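Treating backbone geometry as a discrete language has practical consequences that deserve illustration. In the encoding step, the backbone of a single protein was reduced to a row of integers, each denoting a local shape. The amino acid sequence and the backbone structure tokens for this protein are reproduced below.
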Amino acid sequence: MLAGVPKKRQDEARSALHRIFYAACLDDARDEARQFLSRYQREFPSAAEILVKHLEECLTFYRFPERHWKHIRTSNVIERAFKEVKRRTKVIGRFPNETSALVMVFSILDEERLKWQKVRMKAEDIAWIEEASKALEQEPIKLEFLEEALVA
């Protein structure tokens, strides 16, 4: 999305986006999104169009317990796994064949997967997530003002 914003204004736009995705609740995120669009839509129409097109899906994490938001909202788990693969394969340098490289990569990714599975949840969290999952199938988050933004 920031590709649609000139480099000299990207920090400002990034900060505004951060306020949307790190808002205290869904209502605050909606307000921040409205402010972003009212401020930047005319100046950066391609960036605003991308936000409008994908915002509802991006805010879905607000339906889950707050302590899980960071894990759902970010791609840090994926980035960390690839960083670990890179770090460990650099040490080896050259692999004798493709199979040995793949064995190494998949074993590292399996270790990272096990770390992710260690996230602990209480029984009420699991029940709440099951309810939220059902709700996700039935009623997507709707931000009415986004339809107006598409027309404008």
